[in-house]
Amino acid sequence: MRKIPLLLLLGLVTALACNYPGLFAGSSAGSSADHDLSVEDLRRTLAAHTPLSPSQTPLPAATVIPQLTQPVPETAQQAPYPSATGALFDYIARSGDTLPALAGRFGVGVEQIITPPGISRDGFLLPGEVLTLPAVLAEVTRGDLLLPDAELVYSPTAFGFDVAGFVQAAGGFLSAYQEAVDGETLSGAAIIQRVAVDLSVNPRLLLALLEFRAGWVYGQPPPTQDRLHPLGLYVPDRQGLYHEIHIAATQLNLGYYGWRQGVFTQIRYRRVETARLNPTLNAGSAAMQHLFALLYSQDAWAPALYGEQGIIALYQSMFGDPWGRARALGDLLPADLSQPALELPFLPGERWSLTAGPHTSWNAGTPRGALDFSPVTGEPVCAVSRAWATAAAPGVIARAERNIVALDLDGDGSEATGWVLVHLHLAERDLVTPGSAVAQDEPLGHPSCEGGRATGKHVHMARKYNGEWLPADGPVPFVLSGWRAVAAAANYQGELVKEGQVVSSNPGGSRTSIIVR
């Protein structure tokens, strides 16, 4: 038994948090912010065995990897990254790129990037813009693109995809599988759908991973297979399909959003070796390289990703051309993306407290996109409040379950498209009805401690656009009633600022955290 990789440990640390609905329902703890465990605590309790081999015939280390035709990205073809340092390299901007992120990926300072005149310094770059950077990285991973970003997140390319229908038509072990999750029995398809929508990871990808690692979608596992760990992640106390898929999705998000922000630039293979990610990758491909590094040794990693029997070949055989779907969608994050007008999630004249500044939108791996608000009502700390969390804008309730309310602002009822506001910790009592249309300021539910680990009643609020979680203090700032979120160095700290006024986050509800709409 070996130690679990540090990145996987960190993913689980943050997952034990107030913004992780379901797993710790009914528990109580420290503050209105997440109740963290130390990494050392987890080191003493978590470990991983050697992962399973793929369900297909195992690929020997000496397998010749065919030279794949690099798929055309959403904008244009990239030149290969130079094999020798010192040269200048032209990079073609993709949807979602920013200058700070590119600096992190290429290992240079922002000031070293030669840009076209008038380029955005803080916002999204215009896809197709050519930037010139010095090549300073000696050795990097393969630069062949694996998946478009839109096929990794729960984006419009997944709109209308029927997980249950696909699983039943495939007729494999998954179609008859059931598992108890948070006190209810879910089918295999329902587990895939729940993880996909909760973490906003494309369900097609989760199904392909399960088929590749375990053969559950089309086939029947052999009697010798460990059915408690179908992906081979082997985390104690995290067994069964739900936990295995959830951990995999968490790691995909960690790679995806870390790459988006330019802070996740290195992978660690199963046998400790490390490698620098190729800076020309898109976020979806970087995420795939990261997850498969957790699952495979360095020799087996490339065949499992790029080989004729690899995950991408299987993905295309199961679901067709992912790049064609991405091209039909267009830019996942338009360069001129701006947030619609949103109000604070409570009624005018009420006193609320900003109990947490920008912190993880859902769980580990998702960006620091959420804000926490608690009503100042004098009620017991963890009572279901008599106050209401209200709709920040008109829309349709795409989901209202398990203390979660997803408000879809484009009205199609899907969390995969357009702007969606996700609210956590709303009490089951009086929760808004799924599918209902709501006007701005209509009630959604009562702030509570339900739906995760928290000691103070509050509503946790985060944003998605086209299925992608957005940071609160990023290219598209989180603005509520004119108050703009400003992140601090640490999770949960930070401020709301408006016309010279400042509200500082405080889990205890101090005077400086009070905000009145």
SSE topology sketch:
Layout: E1 2-3, H1 6-15, H2 39-45, E2 47-48, E3 88-92, H3 99-106, E4 130-134, H4 163-170, E5 178-181, E6 184-187, H5 188-199, H6 203-214, H7 241-260, E7 266-268, E8 274-276, H8 283-295, H9 298-306, H10 311-319, H11 322-329, E9 351-360, E10 368-375, E11 389-390, E12 395-401, E13 404-408, E14 419-424, E15 437-438, E16 443-445, E17 459-465, E18 468-469, E19 479-480, E20 483-487, E21 494-498, E22 501-504, E23 514-516
Antiparallel strand pairs: 1-2, 3-4, 5-6, 7-8, 9-10, 9-23, 10-17, 11-16, 12-13, 12-15, 13-14, 14-17, 17-18, 19-20, 20-21, 21-22
Helix pairs in contact: 1-7, 4-5, 5-7, 6-10, 7-8, 8-9
Keywords:
517 residues; alpha+beta; Membrane-bound Lytic Murein Transglycosylase D, Chain A; Glucose Permease (Domain IIA); four-stranded antiparallel sheet; 23 strands; disordered N terminus
Give the class from helix and strand content and strand pairing. Answer: alpha+beta
Low-confidence runs of at least 5 consecutive residues: 1-17, 19-70
Main beta sheet: strand number and arrangement?
9 strands, antiparallel
Please report the number of helical segments. 11
Cα(first) to Cα(last) distance is 54 Å
- The overall pLDDT average reads 87
Shape designation: globular
Number of domains: 3
The helix content, as a percent range, equals 10-25%
The total of beta strands comes to 23
Q: What percentage of amino acids are in beta strands?
A: 15-25%
Radius of gyration: 22 Å
